[in-house]
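Interim report, section 4.2 (structural modelling).
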Amino acid sequence: NAGVTQTPKFRVLKTGQSMTLLCAQDMNHEYMYWYRQDPGMGLRLIHYSVGEGTTAKGEVPDGYNVSRLKKQNFLLGLESAAPSQTSVYFCASSEALGVTGELFFGEGSRLTVL
Amino acid sequence: EDQVTQSPEALRLQEGESSSLNCSYTVSGLRGLFWYRQDPGKGPEFLFTLYSAGEEKEKERLKATLTKKESFLHITAPKPEDSATYLCAVQAGSADGLTFGKGTHLIIQP
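Predicted structure of the assembly:
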């Protein structure tokens, strides 16, 4: 079982470049999330989706956009990358938090912005 | 604002030396408190959900407990393979996402 798959796993960008991170889940989950993890900061929620065609802002949404055109995919876009966006990005999915609270995480995408 | 504070930041134990990790939280309307384990270079892996004060959950050498202000993750007779970062998270009444603490980096020495 693949679970949650993130691509790419590593990427180096120059300031001002754009890119998209792709998250795919094969568990038919309704909820999907994008988190970033920085040393000393813990995991912080960027954007999330409660179903196909929906998106919502999390704690740190500025500089990012998302789309959920298909239930199994959740895309995170950086329109103009900044060094402050250097981080490890994790995608997660869940049935619904009210059920078990279990988030299934991908293995992360490490992004460096020079 | 929901807050989760974990202590200690790092803990080094000898194999077989039991201890506890702490997670204190401030949240309006707790819907659930969650423990995750994260290995280096990997995504977090779900361990437990606790919903109400007094609740306890166990899994192998791990036991999680919950009070109205904090949660403890007790590790009994740990083994080197228990080395990881342990993350605590809460879900508030109106939130769709989880608020995570910064984690406790646990090292078990053989």
